[in-house]
Write a structure and sequence with these properties.
The complex is a heterodimer of chains A (328) and B (515). With 328 residues, chain A is α/β, with parallel strands linked by helices. Helix content of chain A is 44%, strand content 19%. Chain B has one domain. Chain B has a two-stranded antiparallel sheet. The N and C termini of chain B lie far apart (45 Å). The chains are: A alpha/beta (328), B mainly alpha (515). Chains A and B meet through helix 1, helix 2, helix 3, strand 7 and helix 7 of A and helix 2, helix 3, helix 7, helix 14 and helix 16 of B.
Chain lengths: 328, 515
């Protein structure tokens, strides 16, 4: 019985794969004329199933398969462990390959700063930045502060407590840079999960928190939380009439990159192919829907522009974290 | 009444032939992922999520939710038959479930677990129907100080798990705490005890450790005892005389256990982060303190199986409340469910049930039906599952090994966790051999980091003052509850014991009074 159950389990998993194979076969006949792609694509997801990185990678793969954008099969593998160290380490080991692709998160920058990984974000071949995760500073719905000015004014007298996810993370870096520019201090309280953080704010344990709009917009709509300021370029309408940090002159210029990279030293033909493919992906209604439901900020930068973005983020993160003593 | 019209409307949504089919598929898949150790509901949900993209959202969420609570049924089957929890919420079910099977009572144990699961699940859904709005307000009062106190409360269960040799038991728990410190320190962001290995910065997850200690440890121990040389059916004889159906004493002993376990499980499940695992462990230890025969716990007491089973199913229902009313997932599985909601463009929050009544009540109504389907499925399938015991150990052992390995890998597709699982298996064997407590180690590993983080967050917030625990209503509530439990339970236990003293003898009284 046990064997049978295992077989049923794998069988169910197989349906998705089989569907992918069929699509791949149909698409394969069209691609014979090109040199690239001529092999199956190995798509590394450096995190477990169900997370933000996984959902983005699988959305991209679905779009590519639906529109037959890649002529061969795509094999998606979750190679999780060590906050991305395992998955990206695997892609790094495939230097020179044009068939090893992976999606990025903030950890691409922060993990090498924390642990002694053989690779850094700048070692990979940057294909395209697709979107950024930006943050809003939130307070409880019944809080005395209605605007960021009121918040800062009171913060200058008594530093508030502000919650975020993790320390070596944009959640810590964005408010730190923001507070420096706006001239106040705060006490950072680090949480492991969004859920614990939200209840900490709603229960009145912390004064404020930072969060991605996608995770908090329901609580804003219901009036349980208020957004005070947003770190991205334009505030999503769902958060209400909230200013951005740039508008107030306290821009921080740091956000979490969601993009695509290839293994180091990937051949130019692969880079060219993917640039053209990404241009098609971002035009699809499925991609628009993904950006919309996850309230990401669309921010498309190709090739070297993405490379410079990563390098700046890496330097910015390192500077702040070193100054705060979070890394040595 | 509004409530009934809402529920009726939900039922009419759920009872379409296609939706019922999805529900049944979900229940079956849930049982299967539950049976495979380590392959928990969260991994099953995540892998099936893409399959649901083209489906109608209501049918899809009914199916995914059924996978989630169906796994709570399936997970116990291997706990009872192989001493290998199918997933973390059924760890507590091994304590008495496995001894029951060894005593030749696998059949009744499996039937009782199905009944307990059904009761827990159904009580849970009834409570969701009645209390969803009210509970969302209670859950809102839980910040770091309350989580710290809850973790302390959870550590009381260590006292139960430490076992007969308290020195070795305490040492086991301390090893668990120590393993819990590995990884990035949440507050300062510095790596602790990773020895330069990037693979360890995420910390040591308790699931591979639990599978290794319980599953492989037990396997190696069985080899040590020479079970592989014995032929078919001799490990834990399935005694036909003792039968398949539970006897009257089983029902009589556990009727209140069912109620207690269900309610406790539900309450713990509603609290985000606490989840089914802690609910089942707490239910086990509370049941032991209520019992007239606490000495029998761990040796095959039916109540010791029924309590955690009712609790983990009720908790999986309870966890739907913060998910639906706050958009806050209480566990890895509900986090994947939340991801599914978002994929369909639905955003759970305080207004969700008002704005999407068909969706929310359709889901709740489907949970009544799903639990009934699972009860029937379980009872029909039990004679099949019991055959596992009749398979010679030398054939069963390699299968268990493969399942443990596959299961561990599928949790987060990490080879590091597979290596950790094998290491834990060897450690578990020696712990078993020399009388240490693997259960205390796992609990230390779960609760240690939780308590450490919550305490440090609390003290950052209060700027170092411990008075914060007496300034918040939620904290005071938990402190009072704990105090009541610590004082009242032993008293009730003593009264109960006195009533039954003539039958029981009084040898154990002095030792147990402190629990």
């Amino acid at each position: 019985m046990k064997l049978i159950s295992t077989l049923i389990g794998t069988g169910l998993r197989g349906t998705g794969l089989a569907a992918g194979c069929v699509l791949g076969l149909i698409a394969g006949s069209q691609a014979l004329a090109q040199d690239y792609p001529s092999k199956d694509l190995d798509w590394t997801i450096a995190f477990g199933p169900g997370g933000g990185n996984d959902i983005m990678a699988r959305t991209l793969i679905d779009i590519i398969q639906k529109y037959d954008l890649y002529g061969q099969d795509i094999r998606a593998e979750n190679r999780a462990g060590g906050s991305g160290a395992v998955g990206w380490g695997y892609v790094y080991s495939k230097a020179g390959s044009g068939y090893d692709i992976t999606t990025t998160s903030g950890s691409l920058i922060t993990t090498p700063l924390q642990a002694d990984t053989p690779w850094k974000a700048s070692d990979f071949v940057p294909l395209a930045l697709l979107a950024t995760d930006d943050l809003a500073i939130m307070v409880s719905g019944n809080s005395e502060w209605d605007t960021i000015e009121e918040f800062i004014e009171s913060a200058k007298e008594t530093p508030p407590t502000l919650a975020g996810t993790g320390t070596v993370n944009v959640d810590f870096i964005v408010p730190t840079l923001f507070a420096e520019k706006a001239g106040f201090e705060f006490e950072y309280v680090s949480f492991n999960s969004m859920a614990d953080m939200q209840t900490a704010l709603l229960s009145g344990a912390v004064d404020a928190m930072v969060g991605n709009p996608g995770e908090i917009v329901g609580l804003v709509e219901s009036g349980d939380m208020k957004a005070l300021i947003y770190s991205g370029e334009t505030t999503p309408p769902a958060l209400g009439d909230v200013p951005t940090m740039d508008e107030k002159g306290w821009g921080v210029g740091v956000s979490m990159p969601r993009g695509l990279i290839l293994a180091p030293d990937a051949p130019q033909e692969a880079v060219d192919f993917w640039r053209a493919t990404v241009e098609k992906i971002v035009e699809t209604p499925e991609w628009e829907k993904y950006i919309e439901t996850n309230l990401l900020t669309e921010n498309i930068k190709y090739g070297d522009d993405f490379g410079i973005f990563l390098k700046n983020a890496q330097d910015g993160f390192e500077k702040v974290l070193r100054a705060q003593g979070a890394i040595k | 009444m509004d409530l009934f019209s809402d529920l009726w409307m939900g039922l009419s949504v759920a009872i379409s032939p296609l939706n019922l089919l999805y529900l049944l598929i979900g229940a079956m898949v849930g049982m299967i992922v539950g049976i495979i150790p380590g392959f928990g509901p969260s991994a099953g949900l995540a892998i099936l999520l893409p399959v649901t993209f083209g489906m109608d959202p209501i049918g899809a969420v009914m199916m995914l939710a059924a996978i989630y609570y169906g796994a709570m049924y399936g997970g116990t089957i291997t706990s009872i038959l192989l001493n290998t929890p199918g997933e973390s919420a059924t760890v507590a079910s091994t304590f008495d479930g496995y001894p029951l099977a060894q005593n030749g009572r696998a059949g009744p144990a499996l039937v009782m677990q199905a009944v307990a699961s059904f009761t827990g699940g159904t009580v849970g859904v009834i409570l969701i129907t009645l209390l969803a709005p009210a509970f969302s307000h209670v859950a809102r009062n839980f910040g770091p100080p309350e989580y710290f106190l809850l973790a302390l409360l959870g550590m009381l269960t260590l006292i139960v798990m430490i076992g007969e040799n308290w020195k070795l038991g305490v040492l086991s728990a301390l090893v668990g705490f120590a393993l819990g410190t590995v990884g990035v320190d949440l507050e300062t962001g510095q790596s602790r005890y990773t020895f330069g290995f990037a693979e360890l910065i995420g910390g040591i997850h308790f699931i591979p450790i639990a599978i290794g200690l319980f599953g492989l440890g037990e396997l190696y121990f069985a080899f040590h005892q020479g079970l592989h040389r014995i032929g078919s059916g001799s490990i834990a004889p399935y005694d036909r005389k003792k039968g398949f159906w539970p006897d009257l004493a089983d029902w009589a002993d556990t009727k209140f256990t069912l109620v207690r376990g269900s309610i406790l499980g539900f309450v713990v499940g509603v609290i985000p982060g606490a989840g089914a695992t802690i609910a089942s462990l707490m239910a086990y230890s509370f049941e032991r303190s209520f019992s007239k025969r606490p000495k029998n716990f761990g040796k095959g007491e039916m109540a010791g199986l029924v309590a955690p089973e009712a609790a983990n199913n009720a908790a999986s229902s309870g966890a739907m409340i913060p998910l639906l009313t706050l958009g806050i997932p209480g566990s890895a599985s509900t986090a994947v469910l939340l991801a599914a909601f978002l994929l369909w463009g639905m955003r759970p929050g305080p207004l969700f049930m008002e704005q999407n009544p068909e969706f929310a009540w359709g889901l709740i109504a489907s949970m009544y039906l799903g639990n009934m389907a699972l009860l029937a499925l379980n009872i029909f399938a039990i004679p099949l599952f019991v055959q596992i015991i009749r398979v010679p150990y030398r054939i069963l052992a390699p299968i268990v090994l493969v399942i443990c390995t596959l299961g561990t890998f599928s949790v987060s597709s990490s080879m590091i966790e597979v290596y950790l699982m094998f290491t834990a298996g060897i450690v578990g064997f020696f712990m078993r051999l020399y009388g240490f407590s693997p259960a205390a180690l796992v609990l230390g590993l779960v609760l240690g980091p939780l308590a450490e983080e919550a305490l440090r967050q609390t003290l950052t917030i209060s700027r170092g003052s411990f008075w914060i625990f007496l300034e918040r209503n939620g904290s005071i509530g938990i402190i009072v509850t704990t105090a009541v439990l610590l004082v009242v339970l032993p008293l009730m236990q003593r009264i109960g014991r006195r009533a039954g003293a003539s039958k029981q003898g009084s040898v154990s009284e002095a030792e147990d009074a402190g629990v």
